[in-house]
Amino acid sequence: MDTPGMKQEDAATGQITAAAARVYEQFFVPALFGQFAPWLVEAAGIRGGGRVLDVATGTGIVARAALARGASVTGVDINEGMLTIAREKAPHASFQLAAAESLPFEDNSFDAVTCQFALMFLADRGQALREMARVCHPGGHLAVSVFDTWENSPGYRDLVPLLGEIMGDAAAEAFKPPFSLGDPATLEKVLREGGLEDAQIIHKTGQIRHASMDAWLDTEIGGWTLASLATPETMAALKARAPEVLGQYRNSDGTISFEAPAFFAVAQV
């Protein structure tokens, strides 16, 4: 929801303000999420038209990738802050406020359904997957992506303890939900709960790139779930400590880069 004062519990469920959504779109999309969207669209078999539903669409990154393939695209999200940006960026797609666990569409309404890096935030993951399968036409594909664990993710395995050191344990814990389905056994359990026992799980590795150390921290904090938990003082403390803790990810030109491992789960409905 687009609320002016996001609380810690909002961070744990991925809720961000419209202002943070703009930071997310401007910086996070080119730094990380944009590269995965065409891969997910390809995995879902979207190659030339068709009706596509993107669940928990965020700012519409995957929706735009599907539009580029000639698809007719609908995106849903429970976060109005995100949808505001999605509508601006992709006026030819249809975006509406809706929960993944209760999709407002008839059975077999879409040829493919996608969900990029959002399953971990959903209140009832199994029900959400069942809903995605319900609205997908028989023979169509359902494709979701999740991050590997934070411990297996370069950059984050050092950033999370730093957040705990500077902002406290609660902030570090609030940063972990995006990585909560990174264990394959956990992901497989969720897929079974959603009736997708036969889903193929594919490991994919992208690259995270930021212009500088400060840009990395500003993007991670300002464009994601901790946006309303950080003060100018904590940001200054993070940036002062970061070169010592995170310096291994800085290149000779001052840019930041490291691998972003993820899993794709693809099922034919």
From TrEMBL:
Keywords from UniProt, A to Z, are: Methyltransferase, Transferase
All copies of domain Methyltransferase type, residue ranges: 53-143
CDD domains, per database record: AdoMet_MTases
InterPro entries referenced in this protein's UniProt entry, alphabetically: Methyltransf_11, Methyltransf_Superfamily, SAM-dependent_MTases_sf
Q: Name one GO biological process term.
A: methylation
Listed Gene3D superfamilies: Vaccinia Virus protein VP39
Gene Ontology MF: a single term: methyltransferase activity
Matches recorded under PANTHER family: METHYLTRANSFERASE (PTHR42912), METHYLTRANSFERASE DOMAIN-CONTAINING PROTEIN (PTHR42912:SF80)
Q: What is this protein called?
A: Methyltransferase domain-containing protein
Species this chain originates from: Salipiger mangrovisoli
